[in-house]
Amino acid sequence: MRTFGGFRSGDRFFYGELRGETVHELAQPYWIEIQPTGEVLPVADLQIDLPVAPSKLIAVGLNYADHIAEMKRTPLGTPLIWFKAPTSLLPHDKTIEIAFPEHQTDFEAELAVVIGKTAKDLLVERALDFVFGYTIALDVSDRDLQKREKQFGRCKSFDTYTPIGPFVYADADVSDVSLELWQNGELRQSTRTSRMIYSVAQIVSFASQSLTLLPGDVILTGTPSGVGPIHTGDQLETAIDNWPRLSNRVSIAERASGCDAEESSIMTT
């Protein structure tokens, strides 16, 4: 299993391959070409940054039966997909900023897929050939807006609402790995990816029937039961298998204000 990520040395950002305690710098994003520059840096001297830069950030809902039950929904018979704004991506060890503190804003732990080749109209049997690798993600969700607006784009796309990383793993078998989330040290979500209703191959194939998937695109594959609200001061840790955990703090966004006041202003303008 090979490990890739985005790194920062001072003001300089680059993609690299993590090998033990060192990072081998790459000339291009790894999903385009793995071309080392020859520079090798100690990972301890670097800041871990976003490991992805997708043209599209796609999310999948209702992909675990226990989550469907807790949300009082019914299965659709096909994967439920929508878009999240790529600007919502947040690196490991950075802070989720709650946009509307009076709303219920929930965590959702997910396995994320990074596309490696342009894909359109894929058969399920070939879909994994177009996957570069996998990483850990959170789909942070404003439930008040989700219920009010009956769609998922805005409520899940505020800045910082998609923590992801720390790294991307190529040549990984994710057909039956653990997926867990801890909130302030307490286990809140726990499942195995084998419990997904739709497998990674089925999701990638389904998405490719409607969309051209490009190298670097990211697909979140759904969350299990146990979702719950986040609060300022929380520490979240999300884990898949024995990969390094994705860790994020929670605070209130500086721009946060009452939603009702904001919407009232819009309606009277």
Lay out the secondary structure.
Elements lengths: L1 E8 L2 E8 L2 E5 L9 E7 L4 E3 L7 E5 L3 H6 L9 E5 L4 E2 L4 E4 L6 E3 L1 E7 L8 H4 L3 E8 L2 E2 H7 L12 E9 L7 E6 L2 E7 L7 H11 L7 E3 L7 E2 L5 E6 L5 E7 L6 H10 L1
Parallel strand pairs: 6-17, 8-14, 9-20
Antiparallel strand pairs: 1-2, 1-5, 1-14, 2-3, 3-4, 6-7, 10-13, 10-18, 11-12, 11-17, 12-14, 15-16, 15-19, 19-20
Structural account:
With 269 residues, the protein is mainly beta. Helix content is 14%, strand content 40%. The chain has five helices and 20 strands. Strand 15 and strand 16 (186-192) form a beta hairpin. The radius of gyration is 18 Å and the shape is globular.
